[in-house]
Every structure is written in C-alpha cells, then in structure tokens.
Amino acid sequence: MAGERNFLLGHGERLVAPVATPPGGATPELPYTAEEARQRLLPQVEAAVRAFDSLPAEACPSGKTVGLVTLHPQFIAKTYHPGDFLRDNGLSYIGSRGAKITPEKWTRQGEPVAMDTTEIFVSGRRESFTHLADLLQSPGAFPEGSPLQKMEAFRAPGASDKKRGTMPLPQTSSLFEVGLHIPSVDRDAILRSFQRWARACGVSADLDRSIPVSGLIFMPIAAHTEELDELSRFSFLRVVRPMPRLRTLHPVERSLSVGELPPIEVPDEPVIDGSIRMAIFDGGLPSSGPMSQWTQSFDAPGVGPVVEECVDHGHMVTSAALFGCLNPGEIAPRPFNSVDHYRILDDEEEDSYALYTALNRIRDVLEEKNYDFVNLSLGPELPIEDDEVHPWTAVLDEYLSHGQTFMTLAAGNNGNNDWASGNARVQVPSDCVNALAVGSANSKLKNWDRAGYSAIGPGRSPGLVKPDVLSFGGSQYEPFIFLPRNGDAPLSAMGTSFAAPAALRMAAGIRAHFGGHIKPLALRALLVHCTERGDVPIDEAGWGRVPDQIEAFVVCPPNSVRVLYQGTIEPGQTMRMPIPLPEDARTGNVIISATYCINSPTDSRSPSTYTGSAIEPVFRPHAEKFNNEDSMHPATAPFFRSSDFLPENDLRKGAHKWETTKHKILTKRASSLLRPVFDVRYLSRLEQLAAIHTEKVEYALVITLTTSADADIYNKVVRAYSGQLEILQPQVDIPISVQP
Q1: What whole-number distance in Å separates Cα of residue 525 and Cα of residue 530?
Q2: Strand, coil or helix: 407
Q3: CATH number of the domain at 34-157, out of 3.30.70, 1.10.10, 1.10.150, 3.30.9?
Q4: pLDDT tens digit string along 652-678?
Q5: Do 484 and 427 meet the contact criterion of CB atoms below 8 Å apart?
Q6: What is the pTM of this model?
Q7: Are the C-beta atoms of 431 and 393 separated by less than 8 Å?
C-alpha cells in the first residue's frame, strides 16, 4: 500500500479544562410599566375567564382549564419565563408553541414590527384564573419588575387554535389524530374526562392505541368534521388533525428497468465486526436469498401476512445497509456488520391505524433490545410542522436522547411537491434532533446535486438543518444498485429509503475500523464534518454529501490534521477546548473546520424550545490579544453564526444556540492565531418551567486544521501533544486506498 496513513487523532478531551466566566449583563429595560401591563391584561384575562366559565363541567377535568399566555417577543428566553408568578397564582406551565406577533410597544427605536415569540399553555382551576382577574383589578397590586411586564397577551384558546388541516374535509366519518396536554398530576382525570366528553360529542376515541410522550398523549379518534368544534372545547385538547398515512413505497423507490446488468459476485466471508448490532425496520426479507448469512429476519409481534412489494423494499434497504451501492460485474464488499431486520409492514398498511401500529412495533423492539445502529426508511406521509411535534418524532427523540444509538432516517421523496406550501419539506420523523436525517444525492460523481425527489428543508427551529446530510440514493440516469433477491440480475431503484442506510453503513464502518470507544455521537459528528459541501444550498443538501469511502473519515487529508474530542460538560459549566495548532505555524493560511454535536433531552410540549440542552462555543483566536486590560480572557472572534443555518432575517435571535449540530469552515491567517481555543458553555432551559433535573451533557467535537504552508502539520501536532492526543489505530483490517 503506497503512502503514509495519517489516521484520525483521538482523546482531544484530554486537552479540555474548565474555565471561569464573568457574571451576566445588566437588567434589561421592560416595554411596559407595571400599571400599563395591569391595565392591558385586565380585560384580556376577564374575557378568558368568561370563556372558561361557559365551558361545561365535563370539558374541565377536576375543574381545571387551559389558558394561553403570549410572551413579549423581546422576553422569550427561559430566564424570563414567568414560572414563579404562575405557581404563586395557582397556575402551572404545561407546554408552549411558537407564534408571530407585532407587540404594542417595544424597547427598540422605531415602530414595532412582527416578531417571533412564544405562547405558553397554562393550566389551573377556573377559580385560580378568576382570582388572577380579581388581582388585576387593583391598581398598584404588582410592583415594577413584575413578570406581567413581559407578557403581551392572555386568552382562552378556541377551536381555531386547535384544529389543523381539517377544512375542507368531507362530512363523512374520518379518522383524526388528537394530542392532549396530560400533566402527570391530572393524567387519570383528564383521560377519563376526555373519553366521556368524546362520547358526548359522538366521537370514538381509541385510548388503547394511545402514545404518551413527555407531558402529551396522542391517540386516534373517529369523528365527523362537524363534531370537531364541540370536541375542541375540551380544555386539555391541544391539537386535532387528519390522521396521516404511513409512507412506505413511493413510486420512485420501486425497481427501475435499466436493461441487463452484469451479475454481482457475493463474498463468502463473515462480517468484519461481529460485535456491532444493527436493526432495520421495514417490509421484511425473502425467506432465502444472497444476504442470508449476514442477516436475521424477525416478524414484529402482531404483524400480518407478507406483502411481496414490501419485501422487495426491505431487501433493497438491507442491501444498501450491508454493501452500499454496488457495481455490476464486480464483487460486493465484505459487510462491516450483520443486520437484524424487523418486518413491521403487512397487508394492512392501508389500515387507518397503520401509523400507530408501526410506531408501537418499533418502540417495543427498541425498548427491549439495545442496538448500536438503527435505520428507518418509513414514517408518516406528512411534511413537518413548525408549531407541533408529531408523536413519531417525540418517541424517537426521547429514545435517542441517551446517546446509545446512532439512527438514520430517510428524509422523504416529496421534494418535487410544491415548495411554497411546505409540502416538499422533510417528512416526519426526519425532524428528530438526535438522529441523522438523510436525503438523496443524484450521483456518486464529483458533479452531484440534490436528487429532485429528495425532500428539502428547512427543519423546525431548533433542528433547522434538515436533511442533515445527503447520501447517494440514485437517480433515473444513475440508479442505486442492489443484490438480486434470488440469483437474478441486480436490482436498481432510487429513493431516500436507500440513501439513509447507505449513510448508516459508513458510520458502522468507522465503528468497525476504530472499535467501540468511538461513540454514536462522535460518529454523527464525523459524518457531518467530512461531508462534501458542493454548491447546493444548505436547505436542500444540509451540511453536504456523505463520502462513500471509509478513508475519507479515518485518514487525514494532505497538509491536514484531524482530532476527535469526546466528553461531558456539567450544568452551568464552561470548558476551554484548545485547538491544537502548533505555535510555530505562523505563515500562510490555516483552514479551521469544526463540528460540534450533542444529544439533547427534548420536550414535545414546546416545539419552539424543543431541545432542552445546548452548547455555545466562543472562539478566542489569539491567547495574547485582549479587548482591554480588565478582560479576564482573550478577545473573541466570530466563528459559529446564526447565518450558518439560515439567513439572519429568517431566524429568531439566538435560536441557533439551541441546535444540536454546529458545523463551520473558516480560513484565518496563521499569524492571527496563537493557542486558539473554543470556550464552550453548557446551556439548559428545561428546569425553569418543568422542574426537570438537568444532567451533564455529552458532546463530540471534530476539528480539522489544514495549512497552506506546512505539509508536516500532522507530525508536528502528534509530537507537540504526545501523551495527550493519540493516533487512533485500526482495530480490524479494512482495505482502504491512501494516496501517496
């Protein structure tokens, strides 16, 4: 093998140490005085109380109801949320959602303009809301600095707040999906009351199929459209929408006719790493076939008869996970790992309840068995929504938040739908913030683009960059090639269903190469870090196209050094993470590429503040340059910015802080850098309103330094950080080609 192999360096976390930070800034100016706020909110709260009093007792479990508090757009950070004020008045926070309003006043110059804000759902006994109205009638009852001054509005939610996509629909009975607020203290009372209320409205609620997730519960209901307004009077009902179908076989994913293809020789070898556990949930595998020695096939409990078209899909998805896209006439590569394939699709996929049945089958398997890698190439036939989180997304994100599993999700094949309406956006559950959503590139060649059918972004904030990445998924002129089912000619097709497992295969290959100390979070960071950016916009390609060769991830490029950090940060802590640039690198340019990933707890009750944890890296390029003589730390310079995700005017101020993945490439003059560092602060917002204990967060950081004037930078870093950084040695022999 020609050339020297400069493998990835690991244990960057050994360079990391905590650092003290200065105290926060001054108290902000408020838009309203306490008396102005009282006078503004009094008629609004009184109107809400009248609406609450008009509700039947059956619609108010245990005498409780739900109101909506709209925060002033300048005061939506979690430190401004009125948690203590609500509790003091017998009210409880139970969720939130994003909204856009024009405030009556603001603290900036000029007339107020439309701004993004947060609406808070608050619950309490009707008497508590009445008591608040009584308090507001007393001038001087609230001191200056009261949380009232940060509230813009208060109201009782109506049917229009709760119904999504229900008009126009036929007046015949249809299946809908409802989501209920279900705080733990009132859980049983709410469910009993909703069953009674639904029956009184002529609606059939199926609690047996319900799916609970973090303070919400979703369930199917059978109802006539005209019954939904009355049903929506139930105080704890948050959303009702038509039940989406389960997307399985999009037309582009069916086998293509490309003429006679030369046969592909199947290797007769075991997998490279038998310790890796990978699961695929799909349509099943043939009872006998060329992949049998590397796969096990299971039927999920309760699954019905086999559908051959679904088996074709399952076979192709599994072939992509084991081999990637194959080359006709050549030998298939030796698989990195074996696959457990779970058949969750059957002849009842047209059943209205298939969406809930499939999710429950997936959840049951994941809760019982621990898998390192999982692929899903199916889900609801539903583009993501900005103001609600679907149960598929909530269940999977909750499972993945612990960081033990690397999951790829097919972004969807709806990219040719209407863009302006949002119908081309990535489909649920591709909005998971703890998984890798994969779209399709149209070619393996250098001149690639997004495949026209591949769903586009943006995702919901947080989670704006969706799809996260593209991987080759095939196109009409360059289809994806699979092993045949039974010794026939190779199969061909195209779709994000195949791009996702092909990307998963790369992650499994890195793990097989370096062993189990490379955690799932680090694998996600490496896949994002090593993407080929191209000229495709970020809302179409995400961070870029994933390479299809292992060497791109495990071997440093020429004139470069790549370092992996894996560690944890405690709540409230700031950690200094040195960028290992040798001090004698003083000429030419240095390209710094950095990628951060974390797994975050999620809160499906609050789509606009969905992620509970974040890290905020601050770049300090020069250890001896300070803003002034009183500065505690070296001066900062821009690195990660909100414009890395979307144009500034499309992104709520500060929202980019809460992204679980941050990636940037920046070129600096070497002379402007001296012992550069990232100071990384751990942010948490869950505990303020939800009384959730905040735990330490795991992070993965990948940094690549590329120099224009020093071809020996790799060896210089190895020598300078000897005893701290280590060359990650291959654990198994995987053939890779390295250029001399």
Answers
A1: 9
A2: strand
A3: 3.30.70
A4: 555 667 899 999 999 999 999 999 999
A5: no
A6: 0.92
A7: yes
